[in-house]
Design a protein that fits this description.
heterodimer, A: mainly alpha, Formate dehydrogenase/DMSO reductase fold, two-stranded antiparallel sheet, 12 helices, 2 strands, B: alpha/beta, Alpha-Beta Plaits, 2 domains, three-stranded mixed sheet, elongated
Chain lengths: ~400, ~260
Amino acid sequence: MNTKNWSFKITPVRIFLFALVGMAALLGVYRLFTGLGGSTNLNDQWPWGLWIVLDLTVVALAGAGYSLTLLSHVLHIKKFKSVARRALLISLMGYIFVLLTLILEIGRWDNFWRPIVSWGYHSPMFEVYMCILAYMAMMLLEFTEILTEKIGKRWAKLVHAILPVVFIFAALLPFGHQASLGAIYLIFPDKLHPIWFTPMLPWLFLISSFFVGLAVVVFETLFSSKLRNQEVDMEALKGLAKVSACIMIGYLVLKIGDLISKGAFSHVFSGTVEGNMFLLEMIIGVVLPIIIAFSPMITKKSGLALFSGCAIIGVVLNRFNVIIVGMYDALGPGYVPSWIEWGISIGLMAVVILMYTFIVENFAIFSPVEKFDEEKGYVGVGRKHGVSY
Amino acid sequence: MSKGVLVDITKCVGCGSCTVACKMWNSLGYKKDIPNQGTDAALNEENWTTITYKKVTVNGEPAWRFVKEQCLHCQDPACASVCMSKAIVKTSEGPVVYDPTLCVGCRYCMIACPFEIPKYEWNKVLPSVTKCQMCANKIIKGEQPACVSVCPTQALTFGERNDLLKLAENTIAADSKYVKHIYGQEEAGGTEWLYISDVPFEELGLKTNISKIPLPHYTHEYLKNTPTVFIGGSILFAALSFYTKRRSEVEKHKKS
Protein backbone atom coordinates (compact mmCIF):
# COMPACT_ATOMS: atom_id res chain seq x y z
CA MET A 1 0.00 0.00 0.00
CA ASN A 2 1.27 3.41 -0.92
CA THR A 3 1.87 5.17 2.36
CA LYS A 4 1.72 8.58 0.69
CA ASN A 5 -1.89 7.99 -0.12
CA TRP A 6 -3.88 10.85 1.36
CA SER A 7 -7.59 10.65 1.63
CA PHE A 8 -10.30 13.00 2.72
CA LYS A 9 -13.80 11.95 1.87
CA ILE A 10 -16.18 14.81 1.23
CA THR A 11 -19.53 14.06 2.82
CA PRO A 12 -22.57 16.33 3.32
CA VAL A 13 -21.71 16.62 7.02
CA ARG A 14 -18.20 17.77 6.20
CA ILE A 15 -19.46 20.31 3.68
CA PHE A 16 -21.68 21.68 6.41
CA LEU A 17 -18.70 21.80 8.81
CA PHE A 18 -16.68 23.69 6.18
CA ALA A 19 -19.53 26.18 5.92
CA LEU A 20 -19.36 26.69 9.70
CA VAL A 21 -15.59 27.19 9.47
CA GLY A 22 -16.14 29.82 6.77
CA MET A 23 -18.66 31.60 8.96
CA ALA A 24 -16.28 31.57 11.94
CA ALA A 25 -13.47 32.93 9.76
CA LEU A 26 -15.63 35.87 8.67
CA LEU A 27 -16.86 36.51 12.22
CA GLY A 28 -13.30 36.19 13.52
CA VAL A 29 -12.08 38.86 11.11
CA TYR A 30 -15.05 41.02 12.11
CA ARG A 31 -14.13 40.54 15.78
CA LEU A 32 -10.49 41.53 15.14
CA PHE A 33 -11.48 44.70 13.27
CA THR A 34 -14.29 45.92 15.49
CA GLY A 35 -12.93 45.06 18.93
CA LEU A 36 -14.62 43.07 21.65
CA GLY A 37 -17.37 45.63 22.25
CA GLY A 38 -18.71 45.42 18.73
CA SER A 39 -18.73 41.65 18.48
CA THR A 40 -19.35 40.33 21.99
CA ASN A 41 -21.67 41.19 24.85
CA LEU A 42 -18.78 41.28 27.31
CA ASN A 43 -18.72 44.41 29.46
CA ASP A 44 -17.03 45.98 32.47
CA GLN A 45 -19.29 44.00 34.80
CA TRP A 46 -18.76 40.64 33.04
CA PRO A 47 -15.30 40.80 31.44
CA TRP A 48 -15.29 37.00 31.07
CA GLY A 49 -18.06 35.09 29.34
CA LEU A 50 -18.86 32.23 27.01
CA TRP A 51 -15.34 31.90 25.60
CA ILE A 52 -13.78 31.54 29.05
CA VAL A 53 -16.40 28.95 30.04
CA LEU A 54 -15.64 26.99 26.87
CA ASP A 55 -11.88 27.30 27.31
CA LEU A 56 -11.86 26.09 30.90
CA THR A 57 -14.28 23.28 30.07
CA VAL A 58 -12.44 22.10 26.98
CA VAL A 59 -9.08 22.14 28.77
CA ALA A 60 -10.62 19.93 31.47
CA LEU A 61 -12.11 17.53 28.90
CA ALA A 62 -8.77 17.50 27.07
CA GLY A 63 -7.38 15.98 30.26
CA ALA A 64 -7.69 12.86 28.11
CA GLY A 65 -4.16 13.41 26.82
CA TYR A 66 -2.16 13.73 30.00
CA SER A 67 -4.14 11.14 31.97
CA LEU A 68 -3.60 8.49 29.28
CA THR A 69 0.02 9.51 28.76
CA LEU A 70 0.53 8.98 32.48
CA LEU A 71 -1.26 5.62 32.61
CA SER A 72 0.07 4.17 29.40
CA HIS A 73 3.47 5.76 28.73
CA VAL A 74 4.74 6.60 32.21
CA LEU A 75 3.16 3.84 34.31
CA HIS A 76 3.26 1.48 31.30
CA ILE A 77 -0.14 -0.09 31.96
CA LYS A 78 -0.42 -2.21 28.85
CA LYS A 79 -4.15 -2.55 28.49
CA PHE A 80 -4.53 1.22 28.07
CA LYS A 81 -2.04 1.44 25.22
CA SER A 82 -4.70 0.70 22.62
CA VAL A 83 -6.48 4.00 23.39
CA ALA A 84 -3.48 6.24 24.12
CA ARG A 85 -3.27 7.64 20.59
CA ARG A 86 -6.89 8.68 20.43
CA ALA A 87 -6.49 10.31 23.83
CA LEU A 88 -3.55 12.31 22.49
CA LEU A 89 -5.54 13.34 19.42
CA ILE A 90 -8.57 14.43 21.50
CA SER A 91 -6.27 16.48 23.67
CA LEU A 92 -4.44 18.05 20.75
CA MET A 93 -7.72 19.05 19.09
CA GLY A 94 -9.03 20.41 22.40
CA TYR A 95 -6.01 22.62 22.97
CA ILE A 96 -6.02 23.86 19.38
CA PHE A 97 -9.64 24.88 19.90
CA VAL A 98 -8.71 26.65 23.13
CA LEU A 99 -5.74 28.50 21.64
CA LEU A 100 -7.76 29.64 18.61
CA THR A 101 -10.51 30.88 20.94
CA LEU A 102 -8.03 32.65 23.22
CA ILE A 103 -6.43 34.56 20.37
CA LEU A 104 -9.85 36.10 19.69
CA GLU A 105 -10.70 36.37 23.39
CA ILE A 106 -7.73 38.44 24.53
CA GLY A 107 -8.03 42.14 23.83
CA ARG A 108 -4.43 42.58 22.71
CA TRP A 109 -3.89 39.56 20.46
CA ASP A 110 -0.83 41.35 19.05
CA ASN A 111 0.67 41.14 22.56
CA PHE A 112 -0.06 37.45 23.17
CA TRP A 113 3.67 36.68 23.49
CA ARG A 114 4.41 39.26 26.21
CA PRO A 115 4.32 36.87 29.20
CA ILE A 116 7.20 34.92 27.64
CA VAL A 117 9.49 37.91 28.13
CA SER A 118 7.71 39.76 30.95
CA TRP A 119 7.16 37.17 33.65
CA GLY A 120 4.17 37.81 35.88
CA TYR A 121 5.08 34.73 37.88
CA HIS A 122 2.84 35.76 40.79
CA SER A 123 -0.25 35.11 38.66
CA PRO A 124 -1.92 31.70 38.32
CA MET A 125 -2.65 32.83 34.75
CA PHE A 126 1.10 32.93 34.11
CA GLU A 127 1.44 29.31 35.19
CA VAL A 128 -1.52 28.39 32.97
CA TYR A 129 0.08 30.25 30.06
CA MET A 130 3.55 28.73 30.43
CA CYS A 131 2.32 25.18 31.08
CA ILE A 132 -0.08 25.21 28.13
CA LEU A 133 2.63 26.54 25.82
CA ALA A 134 5.11 23.89 26.97
CA TYR A 135 2.47 21.17 26.94
CA MET A 136 1.43 22.12 23.41
CA ALA A 137 5.06 21.54 22.35
CA MET A 138 5.09 18.18 24.16
CA MET A 139 1.85 17.10 22.48
CA LEU A 140 3.21 18.02 19.06
CA LEU A 141 6.34 15.98 19.83
CA GLU A 142 4.18 13.06 20.96
CA PHE A 143 2.26 13.43 17.74
CA THR A 144 5.42 13.29 15.61
CA GLU A 145 5.58 9.59 16.51
CA ILE A 146 2.36 9.16 14.55
CA LEU A 147 3.39 11.63 11.83
CA THR A 148 6.72 9.97 11.12
CA GLU A 149 4.97 6.70 10.37
CA LYS A 150 3.80 8.36 7.19
CA ILE A 151 5.85 11.45 6.45
CA GLY A 152 9.45 12.28 7.29
CA LYS A 153 10.13 8.68 8.19
CA ARG A 154 13.84 9.30 8.54
CA TRP A 155 13.11 11.30 11.69
CA ALA A 156 11.32 8.39 13.34
CA LYS A 157 14.45 7.12 15.04
CA LEU A 158 15.21 10.49 16.59
CA VAL A 159 11.58 10.88 17.71
CA HIS A 160 11.62 7.51 19.41
CA ALA A 161 14.86 8.39 21.17
CA ILE A 162 13.38 11.48 22.83
CA LEU A 163 9.86 10.13 23.43
CA PRO A 164 10.45 8.71 26.94
CA VAL A 165 11.43 12.19 28.17
CA VAL A 166 8.59 13.81 26.23
CA PHE A 167 6.10 11.45 27.86
CA ILE A 168 7.22 12.41 31.35
CA PHE A 169 6.72 16.13 30.70
CA ALA A 170 3.53 15.54 28.71
CA ALA A 171 2.13 13.75 31.77
CA LEU A 172 3.43 16.32 34.26
CA LEU A 173 2.95 19.78 32.70
CA PRO A 174 -0.89 19.62 32.63
CA PHE A 175 -0.85 19.15 36.42
CA GLY A 176 0.43 22.73 36.42
CA HIS A 177 -2.21 24.33 34.26
CA GLN A 178 -5.18 22.15 35.23
CA ALA A 179 -4.61 23.09 38.88
CA SER A 180 -3.75 26.71 38.08
CA LEU A 181 -7.01 27.17 36.17
CA GLY A 182 -8.66 26.50 39.52
CA ALA A 183 -6.14 28.75 41.26
CA ILE A 184 -7.32 31.64 39.05
CA TYR A 185 -10.48 31.60 41.18
CA LEU A 186 -8.54 31.76 44.46
CA ILE A 187 -8.31 35.54 44.09
CA PHE A 188 -12.11 35.80 44.54
CA PRO A 189 -12.67 34.92 48.22
CA ASP A 190 -15.37 37.61 48.44
CA LYS A 191 -16.92 36.99 45.02
CA LEU A 192 -17.06 33.25 44.37
CA HIS A 193 -19.89 31.50 46.23
CA PRO A 194 -18.67 29.52 49.30
CA ILE A 195 -19.91 26.24 47.79
CA TRP A 196 -17.11 26.53 45.25
CA PHE A 197 -14.57 28.86 46.84
CA THR A 198 -11.97 26.85 48.70
CA PRO A 199 -8.17 26.74 48.87
CA MET A 200 -8.69 23.19 47.55
CA LEU A 201 -10.07 24.52 44.25
CA PRO A 202 -6.84 23.99 42.24
CA TRP A 203 -6.68 20.36 43.35
CA LEU A 204 -10.38 19.80 42.66
CA PHE A 205 -9.89 21.19 39.14
CA LEU A 206 -6.87 18.93 38.66
CA ILE A 207 -8.58 15.78 39.91
CA SER A 208 -11.76 16.40 37.92
CA SER A 209 -9.78 17.00 34.72
CA PHE A 210 -8.06 13.67 35.27
CA PHE A 211 -11.19 11.58 35.77
CA VAL A 212 -13.17 13.36 33.08
CA GLY A 213 -10.25 12.96 30.66
CA LEU A 214 -10.54 9.19 31.02
CA ALA A 215 -14.32 9.39 30.58
CA VAL A 216 -13.84 11.42 27.39
CA VAL A 217 -11.61 8.67 25.97
CA VAL A 218 -14.30 6.08 26.79
CA PHE A 219 -16.97 8.22 25.16
CA GLU A 220 -14.96 8.98 22.04
CA THR A 221 -13.93 5.34 21.58
CA LEU A 222 -17.54 4.16 21.76
CA PHE A 223 -18.73 6.92 19.45
CA SER A 224 -16.07 6.62 16.76
CA SER A 225 -16.15 2.81 16.82
CA LYS A 226 -19.87 2.88 16.23
CA LEU A 227 -19.45 5.28 13.31
CA ARG A 228 -16.73 3.16 11.74
CA ASN A 229 -18.10 -0.24 12.73
CA GLN A 230 -14.95 -1.10 14.60
CA GLU A 231 -14.49 -3.54 17.40
CA VAL A 232 -14.19 -1.93 20.83
CA ASP A 233 -11.45 -2.87 23.28
CA MET A 234 -13.92 -3.40 26.14
CA GLU A 235 -11.22 -4.38 28.63
CA ALA A 236 -9.43 -1.08 28.15
CA LEU A 237 -12.63 0.95 28.43
CA LYS A 238 -13.84 -0.89 31.52
CA GLY A 239 -10.42 -0.37 33.06
CA LEU A 240 -10.53 3.36 32.28
CA ALA A 241 -14.01 3.66 33.77
CA LYS A 242 -12.89 1.88 36.94
CA VAL A 243 -9.80 4.09 37.36
CA SER A 244 -11.92 7.15 36.65
CA ALA A 245 -14.58 6.10 39.17
CA CYS A 246 -12.01 5.43 41.89
CA ILE A 247 -10.64 8.94 41.41
CA MET A 248 -14.21 10.27 41.54
CA ILE A 249 -14.65 8.67 44.96
CA GLY A 250 -11.57 10.53 46.12
CA TYR A 251 -12.99 13.75 44.62
CA LEU A 252 -16.35 13.23 46.34
CA VAL A 253 -14.75 12.63 49.73
CA LEU A 254 -12.42 15.61 49.34
CA LYS A 255 -15.23 17.93 48.24
CA ILE A 256 -17.65 16.94 51.00
CA GLY A 257 -14.89 16.98 53.62
CA ASP A 258 -13.85 20.44 52.47
CA LEU A 259 -17.43 21.78 52.56
CA ILE A 260 -17.88 20.47 56.10
CA SER A 261 -14.54 21.77 57.36
CA LYS A 262 -15.30 25.25 55.97
CA GLY A 263 -18.78 25.14 57.44
CA ALA A 264 -20.26 25.64 53.98
CA PHE A 265 -22.17 22.37 53.82
CA SER A 266 -25.43 24.04 54.83
CA HIS A 267 -25.47 25.83 51.45
CA VAL A 268 -25.83 22.50 49.63
CA PHE A 269 -29.40 21.79 50.71
CA SER A 270 -30.40 25.43 51.10
CA GLY A 271 -32.65 25.27 48.02
CA THR A 272 -30.83 28.24 46.46
CA VAL A 273 -29.82 28.26 42.79
CA GLU A 274 -26.22 27.70 43.85
CA GLY A 275 -27.10 24.78 46.11
CA ASN A 276 -29.26 23.11 43.48
CA MET A 277 -26.72 23.62 40.72
CA PHE A 278 -24.06 22.12 42.94
CA LEU A 279 -26.26 19.09 43.69
CA LEU A 280 -26.93 18.67 39.96
CA GLU A 281 -23.22 18.83 39.17
CA MET A 282 -22.30 16.31 41.86
CA ILE A 283 -25.14 13.85 41.27
CA ILE A 284 -24.80 13.74 37.47
CA GLY A 285 -21.05 14.08 37.31
CA VAL A 286 -19.80 12.09 40.29
CA VAL A 287 -22.42 10.06 42.19
CA LEU A 288 -24.18 8.49 39.18
CA PRO A 289 -20.95 7.55 37.36
CA ILE A 290 -19.56 5.93 40.52
CA ILE A 291 -22.75 3.83 40.91
CA ILE A 292 -22.64 2.80 37.24
CA ALA A 293 -18.94 1.95 37.34
CA PHE A 294 -19.37 -0.45 40.24
CA SER A 295 -22.54 -2.09 38.89
CA PRO A 296 -22.83 -4.80 36.22
CA MET A 297 -23.90 -2.06 33.78
CA ILE A 298 -20.27 -1.18 33.17
CA THR A 299 -19.62 -4.41 31.24
CA LYS A 300 -21.99 -3.20 28.51
CA LYS A 301 -21.40 -0.51 25.94
CA SER A 302 -24.57 1.27 27.04
CA GLY A 303 -23.34 1.38 30.62
CA LEU A 304 -19.97 2.75 29.54
CA ALA A 305 -21.69 5.35 27.38
CA LEU A 306 -23.91 6.43 30.27
CA PHE A 307 -20.95 6.51 32.64
CA SER A 308 -18.82 8.69 30.38
CA GLY A 309 -21.71 10.89 29.28
CA CYS A 310 -22.63 11.68 32.89
CA ALA A 311 -19.03 12.40 33.88
CA ILE A 312 -18.62 14.80 30.95
CA ILE A 313 -21.88 16.66 31.65
CA GLY A 314 -20.87 16.86 35.32
CA VAL A 315 -17.55 18.57 34.63
CA VAL A 316 -19.14 20.90 32.07
CA LEU A 317 -21.67 21.86 34.77
CA ASN A 318 -18.90 22.26 37.35
CA ARG A 319 -16.88 24.71 35.25
CA PHE A 320 -20.05 26.60 34.29
CA ASN A 321 -20.99 26.78 37.97
CA VAL A 322 -17.63 28.17 39.05
CA ILE A 323 -17.35 30.74 36.26
CA ILE A 324 -20.97 31.90 35.97
CA VAL A 325 -23.31 30.60 38.71
CA GLY A 326 -20.82 31.01 41.56
CA MET A 327 -19.93 34.57 40.50
CA TYR A 328 -23.46 35.68 39.61
CA ASP A 329 -24.32 37.03 43.04
CA ALA A 330 -21.20 39.19 43.10
CA LEU A 331 -21.32 40.43 39.50
CA GLY A 332 -25.09 40.61 38.99
CA PRO A 333 -27.13 40.15 35.82
CA GLY A 334 -25.79 41.80 32.69
CA TYR A 335 -24.35 39.29 30.26
CA VAL A 336 -25.77 36.93 27.66
CA PRO A 337 -23.41 35.74 24.90
CA SER A 338 -23.90 37.44 21.51
CA TRP A 339 -24.65 35.38 18.39
CA ILE A 340 -21.18 36.26 17.14
CA GLU A 341 -19.62 34.69 20.23
CA TRP A 342 -21.67 31.54 19.60
CA GLY A 343 -20.93 31.59 15.86
CA ILE A 344 -17.17 31.84 16.36
CA SER A 345 -17.19 29.07 18.99
CA ILE A 346 -19.28 26.70 16.87
CA GLY A 347 -17.12 27.39 13.83
CA LEU A 348 -13.90 26.76 15.75
CA MET A 349 -15.36 23.45 16.94
CA ALA A 350 -16.00 22.61 13.30
CA VAL A 351 -12.33 23.43 12.58
CA VAL A 352 -11.05 20.86 15.06
CA ILE A 353 -13.65 18.25 14.08
CA LEU A 354 -12.49 18.51 10.46
CA MET A 355 -8.84 18.31 11.53
CA TYR A 356 -9.70 15.27 13.61
CA THR A 357 -11.45 13.50 10.73
CA PHE A 358 -8.53 14.22 8.40
CA ILE A 359 -6.02 12.85 10.88
CA VAL A 360 -7.93 9.66 11.67
CA GLU A 361 -8.35 8.98 7.96
CA ASN A 362 -4.67 9.38 7.21
CA PHE A 363 -2.78 8.30 10.29
CA ALA A 364 -2.82 5.26 12.53
CA ILE A 365 -4.81 6.63 15.46
CA PHE A 366 -7.13 3.75 16.18
CA SER A 367 -5.53 0.35 16.56
CA PRO A 368 -8.42 -1.92 15.66
CA VAL A 369 -6.25 -4.80 14.56
CA GLU A 370 -3.87 -4.48 17.44
CA LYS A 371 -4.76 -6.18 20.66
CA PHE A 372 -2.78 -7.10 23.67
CA ASP A 373 -2.25 -10.83 23.78
CA GLU A 374 -1.16 -12.51 27.00
CA GLU A 375 1.10 -14.90 25.11
CA LYS A 376 2.50 -12.84 22.29
CA GLY A 377 2.32 -9.31 23.61
CA TYR A 378 1.11 -6.78 21.06
CA VAL A 379 -0.03 -8.22 17.78
CA GLY A 380 -1.10 -6.46 14.64
CA VAL A 381 0.01 -3.46 12.69
CA GLY A 382 -0.36 0.22 13.20
CA ARG A 383 2.04 0.49 16.09
CA LYS A 384 5.29 0.05 14.20
CA HIS A 385 6.20 3.15 12.26
CA GLY A 386 6.01 3.06 8.52
CA VAL A 387 2.98 0.83 8.48
CA SER A 388 -0.48 2.09 7.74
CA TYR A 389 -3.62 0.12 7.49
CA MET B 1 7.36 55.25 52.31
CA SER B 2 4.27 55.25 50.17
CA LYS B 3 2.07 58.21 49.41
CA GLY B 4 -1.68 58.29 49.68
CA VAL B 5 -4.72 60.54 49.84
CA LEU B 6 -7.17 61.03 52.68
CA VAL B 7 -10.75 61.73 51.59
CA ASP B 8 -12.88 63.52 54.17
CA ILE B 9 -16.46 62.94 52.99
CA THR B 10 -17.77 65.61 55.37
CA LYS B 11 -15.79 68.33 53.59
CA CYS B 12 -16.76 67.47 50.00
CA VAL B 13 -19.32 69.82 48.45
CA GLY B 14 -19.64 67.85 45.22
CA CYS B 15 -18.26 70.53 42.89
CA GLY B 16 -16.64 67.85 40.70
CA SER B 17 -13.46 69.88 40.06
CA CYS B 18 -11.43 66.76 40.80
CA THR B 19 -13.14 64.76 38.04
CA VAL B 20 -12.51 67.55 35.54
CA ALA B 21 -8.86 67.95 36.58
CA CYS B 22 -8.43 64.20 36.12
CA LYS B 23 -9.83 64.35 32.60
CA MET B 24 -7.62 67.30 31.70
CA TRP B 25 -4.39 65.83 33.05
CA ASN B 26 -5.04 62.39 31.50
CA SER B 27 -6.62 63.71 28.24
CA LEU B 28 -9.87 61.82 28.78
CA GLY B 29 -13.13 62.47 26.96
CA TYR B 30 -16.73 62.62 28.09
CA LYS B 31 -19.58 60.21 27.54
CA LYS B 32 -23.08 61.65 27.61
CA ASP B 33 -24.81 58.55 28.95
CA ILE B 34 -22.22 57.84 31.67
CA PRO B 35 -21.60 61.06 33.64
CA ASN B 36 -18.51 61.70 35.75
CA GLN B 37 -20.58 63.34 38.48
CA GLY B 38 -24.16 63.17 39.68
CA THR B 39 -26.47 60.50 41.05
CA ASP B 40 -25.72 58.16 38.13
CA ALA B 41 -21.96 58.74 37.96
CA ALA B 42 -19.97 55.62 37.06
CA LEU B 43 -16.39 54.73 36.32
CA ASN B 44 -15.58 53.76 32.74
CA GLU B 45 -12.70 54.08 30.30
CA GLU B 46 -13.14 57.89 30.20
CA ASN B 47 -14.05 58.38 33.86
CA TRP B 48 -11.08 57.43 36.01
CA THR B 49 -12.63 59.22 38.95
CA THR B 50 -16.24 60.11 39.69
CA ILE B 51 -18.26 62.02 42.28
CA THR B 52 -21.48 60.20 43.12
CA TYR B 53 -24.27 62.17 44.79
CA LYS B 54 -25.86 60.11 47.56
CA LYS B 55 -29.05 61.03 49.35
CA VAL B 56 -28.64 59.92 52.97
CA THR B 57 -30.14 60.65 56.37
CA VAL B 58 -28.09 62.50 58.97
CA ASN B 59 -29.64 63.02 62.44
CA GLY B 60 -33.07 62.24 61.00
CA GLU B 61 -32.72 64.92 58.31
CA PRO B 62 -32.28 64.13 54.61
CA ALA B 63 -28.86 65.22 53.39
CA TRP B 64 -26.56 64.86 50.39
CA ARG B 65 -23.12 63.35 50.52
CA PHE B 66 -20.65 63.33 47.65
CA VAL B 67 -18.49 60.28 47.24
CA LYS B 68 -15.30 60.34 45.22
CA GLU B 69 -14.47 57.04 43.60
CA GLN B 70 -11.21 56.02 41.93
CA CYS B 71 -8.58 53.32 42.26
CA LEU B 72 -7.70 52.96 45.94
CA HIS B 73 -4.13 51.84 45.16
CA CYS B 74 -3.92 48.78 47.41
CA GLN B 75 -0.71 48.19 49.30
CA ASP B 76 -0.73 44.61 48.02
CA PRO B 77 -2.86 44.93 44.88
CA ALA B 78 -4.75 41.92 43.48
CA CYS B 79 -4.73 43.41 39.96
CA ALA B 80 -0.91 43.56 39.86
CA SER B 81 -0.52 40.10 41.36
CA VAL B 82 -2.80 38.45 38.77
CA CYS B 83 -1.22 40.19 35.79
CA MET B 84 0.67 37.53 33.84
CA SER B 85 2.80 40.03 31.91
CA LYS B 86 3.55 42.63 34.62
CA ALA B 87 1.50 45.28 32.81
CA ILE B 88 0.24 46.44 36.22
CA VAL B 89 2.83 47.07 38.92
CA LYS B 90 2.92 48.61 42.37
CA THR B 91 5.44 51.46 42.54
CA SER B 92 7.44 52.17 45.67
CA GLU B 93 5.89 55.67 45.84
CA GLY B 94 2.42 54.16 46.25
CA PRO B 95 0.62 54.35 42.89
CA VAL B 96 -0.43 51.14 41.16
CA VAL B 97 0.33 51.86 37.52
CA TYR B 98 -0.55 50.24 34.21
CA ASP B 99 1.63 49.91 31.11
CA PRO B 100 -0.52 49.20 28.05
CA THR B 101 2.45 48.05 25.96
CA LEU B 102 2.79 44.91 28.11
CA CYS B 103 -0.92 44.13 28.38
CA VAL B 104 -2.24 40.93 26.80
CA GLY B 105 -5.85 41.92 27.43
CA CYS B 106 -6.92 38.89 29.48
CA ARG B 107 -8.93 41.17 31.81
CA TYR B 108 -8.12 39.08 34.89
CA CYS B 109 -7.27 42.33 36.74
CA MET B 110 -10.80 43.61 36.16
CA ILE B 111 -12.42 40.66 37.94
CA ALA B 112 -9.69 40.31 40.54
CA CYS B 113 -10.08 43.88 41.85
CA PRO B 114 -12.20 43.73 45.01
CA PHE B 115 -13.35 47.33 44.37
CA GLU B 116 -14.23 46.69 40.69
CA ILE B 117 -12.11 49.62 39.53
CA PRO B 118 -10.33 48.63 36.26
CA LYS B 119 -12.46 49.25 33.18
CA TYR B 120 -11.90 48.36 29.54
CA GLU B 121 -11.86 50.15 26.19
CA TRP B 122 -14.41 47.73 24.74
CA ASN B 123 -14.85 49.64 21.50
CA LYS B 124 -11.20 49.90 20.51
CA VAL B 125 -9.55 47.48 18.10
CA LEU B 126 -6.50 47.25 20.38
CA PRO B 127 -7.94 48.15 23.77
CA SER B 128 -6.30 48.99 27.09
CA VAL B 129 -7.36 48.56 30.68
CA THR B 130 -8.07 51.96 32.24
CA LYS B 131 -7.92 53.16 35.82
CA CYS B 132 -6.62 55.98 37.99
CA GLN B 133 -2.81 56.05 38.02
CA MET B 134 -2.70 58.41 41.04
CA CYS B 135 -0.85 60.78 38.67
CA ALA B 136 2.31 58.75 39.27
CA ASN B 137 4.17 60.98 36.82
CA LYS B 138 3.33 64.02 38.97
CA ILE B 139 4.08 62.32 42.30
CA ILE B 140 7.56 61.38 41.12
CA LYS B 141 8.22 65.12 40.57
CA GLY B 142 7.05 65.86 44.10
CA GLU B 143 3.66 67.20 42.99
CA GLN B 144 0.17 66.30 44.15
CA PRO B 145 -2.23 64.24 42.02
CA ALA B 146 -4.31 66.47 39.71
CA CYS B 147 -7.56 65.86 41.62
CA VAL B 148 -6.07 66.79 45.00
CA SER B 149 -4.43 69.94 43.66
CA VAL B 150 -7.75 71.45 42.54
CA CYS B 151 -9.94 70.52 45.52
CA PRO B 152 -11.28 73.85 46.90
CA THR B 153 -12.47 72.52 50.27
CA GLN B 154 -9.49 70.43 51.47
CA ALA B 155 -11.66 67.32 51.28
CA LEU B 156 -8.61 65.63 49.72
CA THR B 157 -5.28 65.58 51.54
CA PHE B 158 -2.18 64.20 49.87
CA GLY B 159 0.77 62.91 51.90
CA GLU B 160 2.61 60.00 53.45
CA ARG B 161 0.10 57.25 54.24
CA ASN B 162 1.35 56.99 57.83
CA ASP B 163 0.83 60.72 58.38
CA LEU B 164 -2.61 60.53 56.78
CA LEU B 165 -3.59 57.67 59.10
CA LYS B 166 -2.58 59.78 62.12
CA LEU B 167 -4.46 62.76 60.74
CA ALA B 168 -7.53 60.59 60.18
CA GLU B 169 -7.36 59.12 63.68
CA ASN B 170 -7.07 62.58 65.23
CA THR B 171 -9.92 63.96 63.14
CA ILE B 172 -12.21 61.08 64.10
CA ALA B 173 -11.27 61.34 67.76
CA ALA B 174 -11.76 65.11 67.89
CA ASP B 175 -15.28 65.14 66.43
CA SER B 176 -18.03 62.75 67.51
CA LYS B 177 -19.92 63.08 64.21
CA TYR B 178 -17.40 60.81 62.45
CA VAL B 179 -17.92 57.08 62.01
CA LYS B 180 -15.21 55.33 64.04
CA HIS B 181 -13.64 53.63 61.08
CA ILE B 182 -10.99 54.59 58.54
CA TYR B 183 -12.02 53.01 55.27
CA GLY B 184 -8.93 51.68 53.52
CA GLN B 185 -6.87 51.15 56.66
CA GLU B 186 -7.46 47.40 56.52
CA GLU B 187 -9.72 46.79 53.52
CA ALA B 188 -8.03 44.36 51.10
CA GLY B 189 -5.00 44.46 53.40
CA GLY B 190 -4.80 48.25 53.30
CA THR B 191 -5.07 50.88 50.57
CA GLU B 192 -3.13 54.11 49.95
CA TRP B 193 -6.40 56.03 49.65
CA LEU B 194 -8.24 56.42 52.94
CA TYR B 195 -11.77 57.63 53.66
CA ILE B 196 -13.38 59.12 56.74
CA SER B 197 -17.06 59.96 56.94
CA ASP B 198 -19.99 60.95 59.16
CA VAL B 199 -22.26 58.49 57.35
CA PRO B 200 -21.73 54.70 57.44
CA PHE B 201 -19.62 53.65 54.47
CA GLU B 202 -22.12 51.12 53.09
CA GLU B 203 -24.69 53.95 52.79
CA LEU B 204 -22.16 55.80 50.65
CA GLY B 205 -21.99 52.85 48.27
CA LEU B 206 -18.47 51.79 49.26
CA LYS B 207 -17.89 48.04 49.35
CA THR B 208 -17.62 46.94 52.95
CA ASN B 209 -17.60 43.13 52.67
CA ILE B 210 -13.96 43.04 51.66
CA SER B 211 -11.37 40.61 52.96
CA LYS B 212 -8.81 42.13 55.34
CA ILE B 213 -6.27 39.61 54.14
CA PRO B 214 -4.52 40.91 50.99
CA LEU B 215 -6.01 38.91 48.10
CA PRO B 216 -2.64 37.90 46.57
CA HIS B 217 -2.13 35.88 49.74
CA TYR B 218 -4.73 33.34 48.53
CA THR B 219 -3.05 32.67 45.19
CA HIS B 220 0.44 32.78 46.65
CA GLU B 221 -0.44 29.97 49.08
CA TYR B 222 -0.99 27.81 46.00
CA LEU B 223 1.71 29.15 43.68
CA LYS B 224 4.54 28.87 46.20
CA ASN B 225 4.36 25.08 45.81
CA THR B 226 4.88 25.13 42.07
CA PRO B 227 8.67 24.75 41.89
CA THR B 228 8.65 21.89 44.42
CA VAL B 229 5.80 20.08 42.67
CA PHE B 230 7.42 20.51 39.28
CA ILE B 231 10.86 19.27 40.28
CA GLY B 232 9.49 16.56 42.58
CA GLY B 233 6.98 15.49 39.95
CA SER B 234 9.62 15.19 37.23
CA ILE B 235 11.78 13.00 39.42
CA LEU B 236 8.82 10.90 40.58
CA PHE B 237 7.46 10.37 37.06
CA ALA B 238 10.90 9.55 35.68
CA ALA B 239 11.43 6.99 38.45
CA LEU B 240 7.97 5.47 37.95
CA SER B 241 8.49 5.33 34.21
CA PHE B 242 11.84 3.59 34.58
CA TYR B 243 10.56 1.17 37.22
CA THR B 244 7.35 0.13 35.41
CA LYS B 245 9.17 -0.31 32.12
CA ARG B 246 11.86 -2.42 33.71
CA ARG B 247 9.26 -4.52 35.50
CA SER B 248 7.37 -5.30 32.30
CA GLU B 249 10.62 -6.19 30.54
CA VAL B 250 11.56 -8.58 33.35
CA GLU B 251 8.10 -10.15 33.16
CA LYS B 252 8.41 -10.59 29.44
CA HIS B 253 11.83 -12.13 29.89
CA LYS B 254 10.56 -14.60 32.51
CA LYS B 255 7.73 -15.73 30.25
CA SER B 256 9.98 -16.41 27.30
